[in-house]
Amino acid sequence: MINKFKKIVIKIGSSSIIDEKTGKVKIKWLNSLCKEIELLANENKNIVVVSSGAIALGKKTISNHKVISRLEDKQAAAAIGQIELANCWQQALRKNKINSAQLLLTLDDSEIRRRYLNVRKTISSLHKNKVIPIINENDTVATEEIRYGDNDRLAARVAQMIDADLLIMLSDVDGLYTESPIKNKNAEKIIDINEINESIEKMAGSKHSKLGSGGMATKIWAAKICMDSGCSTVIANGHKINTLSKINNKNSTWFHASKSPSSSRKQWLLNHLHPSGTIIIDNGATKAVFQNKSLLPAGVIKIKGKFNRGDVISVTNIKNKKIGIGVTAYDSYDAIKIMGKNSKDIKHILGYDGRDELIHKDDLVKINL
Predict the structure, then answer these.
(1) Fewer beta carbons within 10 angstroms: which end of the chain, N or C?
(2) How much is the average pLDDT of 44-64?
(3) pLDDT at res. 326
(4) Contact at 8 Å (CB) between 15 and 173?
């Protein structure tokens, strides 16, 4: 069922990748998953993995107890476990001729627009170079006030960030039930969800697994974020070998997005009532915009207003007609310096390597006149 999707985030829960008895990575399970990832990558799917497990791997070195509660101990455990976790992923993917990269993110990386754009561009560059990002929260530096808190939320933000069309959440449960199936054997699994309402949220409860920090409630929260961004979500049992190929419309819970990620992003841009500034472009650049090309500095003839990198700005033609709206890669101060200039001269003008485009085509929505 997942083959129809093009850009996929796979979230791995601690209980799926870490053996609860030994506290070690389930190598056989991981190898089988990486083989499935290879098959998806060979079909030109863009894959991002959000993997838990660092704290679970490192906590034995910090404490003999099963649970560590102090933040500084969790941070120390994460610092120890993250090395082993990344190494296991690298080796398993390399067996399938796939290169990998590690990204450790904090909440600010999705909340501060400049950092959000940097992460988005980094992941895009990795995909262009056939490298799969392995993402985890940077627990070694995050405080309680600036934490995602669990990788369900992180995975949802990453999916939103890269315009993914599917988030796969592998966990110790195989979906959302009307009640706890452990307490009530007659509990029914909800197979298809098109809207997350109050009754769905009440079914989630707040149960955490022994190894992980998330529960069903955070998975519902993550699914809601994704649905609003045009990304569907599936919750599936991650304890099986060849778990991805076994996902179907009966053994998991599907949250169906009604829009595509691109249309949701365009709607978000078009709904900005107060753009931070305006750029006026020449006829050549206007033509390029309507050909779905990026907007280069060379085509800009005037800049109005003050804006920061990552702000939403309006694009008008020489007749002062609004023809587009997009996210700027430069603040107004630097944009004024490079307007009308060739992209190859940006480094010489600004003193640093910037983007070739003022507004990338992926961050630009044209408005038909």
Answers:
(1) C
(2) 90
(3) 92
(4) no
